[in-house]
Structures are given as structure tokens and as C-alpha cells.
Amino acid sequence: MILKDSLKSFHKVLDGLYDKVEIDSFFYLLVAKYYKVSRLDLAVQPDYQVKEYQKLFDALNLLKEEYPIQYILGETEFFGLTFQVNAHTLIPRPETEELTEIIIEKLKRSKKHLKILDIGTGSGCIAISLAKYLPNSKIYALDISKEALKLAQSNAELNNVKITLIEADILNSDTWDTEFKKQQFDVIVSNPPYIREKEKLLMKANVLDHEPHLALFINSENPFLFYESILEYAVHNLSSKGLLFFEINEYLGKEIMTLMRKYDFTQTELKQDLFKKDRMIIASM
Predict the structure, then answer these.
(1) Fewer Cβ in 10 A, N or C end of the chain?
(2) Is residue 73 part of a domain?
(3) 20 with 154, same domain?
(4) What CATH number has the domain bearing residue 125?
(5) Is position 70 within any domain?
(6) Which residues have a Cβ under 8 Å from the Cβ of 225 and sit 6 or more positions away?
(7) CA quadruple 8, 37, 27, 19: dihedral sign
(8) Residue 136: which domain range?
(9) Same domain, 258 and 204
């Protein structure tokens, strides 16, 4: 089979579900993954042939079902690093990259050996990126999911950094061991579940049908549940002049700012992402 001919099959099956540029991107990503052949290679050798093509068409069938390309590939890029991803963790988002960049820019000139806690680490993308670009810091990564923590550990090894994993439910202090209860951190960061159930209608099927709801959704009756629990922990466990970083629901920025002031985080800054949506908060007491 001439490899490039199968691109026509991708468009025949996927046109209407995705735009043409995205379909091309899917095809070339899969070809690079499965056959180690680049887009440039195929441009130079348009008659390049392969004998085994089943994996490519299995991937095409998954794309037809709107299965995320990152899960098909088993990896994605975040902040210039490669991360393994699977159905137990969210696919890292560009806005989370923005949050990570803000944290690094804020902390990179610090001469302290900072202790940083990432709550709800998932694939470990925030924690590992901080460990990579803030090498003098000690990074802790907390999650309720054993499978997520396994993946975070694999990603730490993949990117040659060390992080300390904590299995606990930030909503339930009974799951916290004594050491975690007594820890003091210079920085706490979290991208918690913040999409309200009523906002599901705004979401695409590839997210809604395939990414873990545990990491995405919060009950509309109390959309601040995770923020309240994290703030309660931070009041007791964030060091003097420590910093708190949140990723937030774009519709709830002002309300979360008000909530933070109730916990004595009086120095707060609401920041927008590249799309001018309220997306991040930086705070200190």
C-alpha cells in the first residue's frame, strides 16, 4: 500500500467531523508514530509503501468515534515536554500551559529551595514541568487516583525528574497522613475539576465521551467545593509569603476571588488566558 493514498481514506471518513487541516494533522501524527515517517519524508517520497496498515485504520475508526488523538497516540506535548496520557487522566490544555508558564516566570528568580504542591496532578504535567524548569525546587504531586499517580510517576521518569507522589483526597482529610497534614509549602497550585454539570451542553463529544469526568466536573450546586477545601488546607499549610495558583472556570472568576478573601487571601490577581477568558488566579495572604 502506498502510504500517502490512505490520506484520502481519512478525508472520506472524517470530513464533516473535523476540518481538513486537522484531518491532515491526525494522519501525519499517526504515520510518524506508527511508521517513523515524517511529513517531509512523504513529500520527498510520495510513493512510500508499507506492508502493515491495520493500526492506521484502527486509529481512523477511533477518530470516527471522536476518540481523542492524544489517547490514540498515547502521548502529547506540554510545555516542550512529552507526556504519556491515557483515559485515567485529562489531556493537558493550552490554558494549563499558560498557568505553568506564569508560575515558572514568577518563581525562576527565587534563591530559595521552594517546596511546591500540585493538587490534582493527573498526568503530572504541571508538577513535572515545574520540576524540570525549577530544578532547585522540591515538587509534590497529589491525586485521588492510583492510576493517575502511576502515570505521573512514569512521566517523571520519562522526563528525568523526581517528584514526590501523594495519594489522597483533598476533599477528605481522613485520607491525609500525618506528614501531609503537617507539611509546609511555599507554593500550592491546582487545576481542580471546575466545569459545572450544566455546562456539559457546551462541550465537544471527544471530551465529554472519553475524558475522565472525575477530573472535569463539579456539582453545579457547589462549584467551589474544591477551591474551599484547597483554601482550607492552604490557610494552615502555606508558608509565610507563600503563593497560591489556581486555574478556574471562566464564568466564576469574581466569585472565587471573593471566596479567597474570606480565607484571608487578600492579595489576589485574576488573569486572563490567550482567549481573553478569566482563567487563572494568583494569591497570597
Answers:
(1) N
(2) no
(3) no
(4) 3.40.50.150
(5) no
(6) 171, 218, 219
(7) negative
(8) 78-284
(9) yes
- Strand 267-272 relative to strand 278-284, pairing: antiparallel
pLDDT in tens, 61-78: 999 999 999 999 999 999
Q: CA-CA distance, 202 to 208, in Å (whole number)? A: 10
Residues 15, 125 share a domain: no
> Per this entry, what is the length of the chain?
285
- Residue 52: helix, strand or coil by DSSP? coil
Q: Is the pTM above the cut of 0.90?
A: yes
All cell numbers assigned to 254: 469574581
Residues 38, 162 within the same domain: no
Residues 242 and 101 reside in one and the same domain: yes
Grid cell, residue 26, equals 491526525
For 91-110, b/e burial (b = at least 16 CB within 10 A) is bbbebbbbbbebbeeebeee
The string of pLDDT tens digits covering residues 226-250 is: 999 999 999 999 999 899 999 999 9
